[in-house]
Amino acid sequence: MAQITLKNLAHSYLPNPRGEQDYALKEMDHVWQDGGAYALLGSSGCGKTTLLNIISGLLRPSHGRVFFGDRDVTDAATAERNIAQVFQFPVVYDTMTVRDNLAFPLRNRGQDAAYIKRRVDQIAQMIGMEAMLSRKAQGLTADAKQKISLGRGMVREDVNAILFDEPLTVIDPHMKWELRTQLKQLHREFGHTMIYVTHDQTEALTFADKVVVMYDGRVVQLGTPEELFETPAHTFVGYFIGSPGMNFIDAKVAGNRATLASGSVVDLGADHGTPSGRVQIGIRPEHAVLTAGEGLPVAIRRVEDVGRHRILRAELEGQAFNIVQPEGLQVPGEPRVTFAPGKVSVYADDWRVAPQGRAV
Ligand SMILES: Nc1ncnc2c1ncn2[C@@H]1O[C@H](COP(=O)(O)OP(=O)(O)OP(=O)(O)O)[C@@H](O)[C@H]1O
């Protein structure tokens, strides 16, 4: 296992990139701790696969270096990096049995037969395929084949890292949840460095200890699921994490006061200085509270009942604004909204402005 370090890494697919816009990955410095379970999360085209391919050695970065531990592997081929990979679609040998497919990486490295049997049985149990070990892979469903790919990716205990690129795309929803839980269990047991690429926040937040959020070729935040929820470092994180995402309202900020376009003032609870650029305040729908008396006037456009709570689709200051209301509460006749103290974030040109005296 190894710590993975990216130094001044950047990548452009163009031979002569002219500016930042020509880079699929903008310059980044980044450390993936040995034994960490990371999810790499972001919408389509933000550079997740590019980054994963650079780590695995399928792609050579146009700038910067990649280290596994102290070793510079930038020019090392995938085979030399001692990693396991699981891709979006199954890669299995149809003519082999399920057992032989799972055993393949171990046999390749000359492990002894008793160990191989023990390890394959353990992995087969994890992916729920003990009963199929003697079957040929041919004719199995795509779902079953992908489980074999996952199992084969995890069968070796001595790899530097396991890289997963959207591995559950073809798996049915119920099994997805089960496999994710088992992957997490496996991580706890064996402590592999795992990097899991996905554009699905549920997948990322349930699998990973640390989530790396990418946007437009950059890592915009690396944090625990709780940090991403409570203190999004970038408006994209606020918008992407949560359901619905964070609300943003244009404002002017001075000290602990945010003044909105209508002249209404929101108390920020802490000094935020006088940020410049496009300044917005960000409020999670869960941190907005409907009242009948105090607060800002809000118009409720639609109510969606989603089980334990309701989502109120509203309008505040002429902009769309979502409120999550606990079950059992009523919408007042002339609704107003207040924000939970200390739960209003400030953004300047999309980046979070930390309250003074506190880290981001
Ligand atoms: N081989 C390539 N040649 C040229 N441009 C590419 C190539 N592969 C990816 N790109 C571009 O690089 C950017 C990042 O793509 P990448 O596949 O890394 O994103 P992604 O986040 O993995 O997206 P997805 O979730 O859709 O796979 C995109 O603008 C994409 O069009």
Q: What is the total tally of β strands?
A: 22
- Structural domains: how many: 2
Q: Give the CA-based shape.
A: globular
Strand order of the largest sheet: 6-7-8-3-9-10
- Rg measurement, Å: 24 Å
Q: Gap between N and C termini, in Å?
A: 31 Å
Q: What hetero molecules are bound to the protein chains?
A: adenosine-5'-triphosphate
Low-confidence stretches: none
Helical segment tally?
Answer: 8
**Which structural class do you get from the secondary structure elements?**
alpha+beta
CATH homologous superfamily assignment of the largest domain: P-loop containing nucleotide triphosphate hydrolases
What is CATH's topology name of the largest domain? Rossmann fold
Task: Please indicate the percent range of residues in DSSP E strands (runs of 2 or more).
Answer: 25-35%
Protein name: ABC transporter ATP-binding protein
GO molecular function: ABC-type ferric iron transporter activity; ATP binding; ATP hydrolysis activity
InterPro entries: AAA+_ATPase (IPR003593), ABC_transporter-like_ATP-bd (IPR003439), ABC_transpr_FbpC (IPR015853), ABC_transpr_MalK/UgpC-like (IPR047641), Mo/tungstate-bd_C_term_dom (IPR008995), NA-bd_OB-fold (IPR012340), OB_MalK-like (IPR040582), P-loop_NTPase (IPR027417)
Keywords: ATP-binding, Cell membrane, Membrane, Nucleotide-binding, Transport
Describe the protein in words.
This protein has 360 residues and is an alpha+beta fold. The chain folds into 2 domains: 227 residues, Rossmann fold (3-Layer(aba) Sandwich), CATH 3.40.50.300; 111 residues, OB fold (Dihydrolipoamide Acetyltransferase, E2P), CATH 2.40.50. The protein has 8 helices and 22 strands. α2 crosses α3 and α2 runs parallel beside α4. The model has no long low-confidence stretch (mean pLDDT 93). It binds adenosine-5'-triphosphate (ATP). Adenosine-5'-triphosphate binds next to α1.
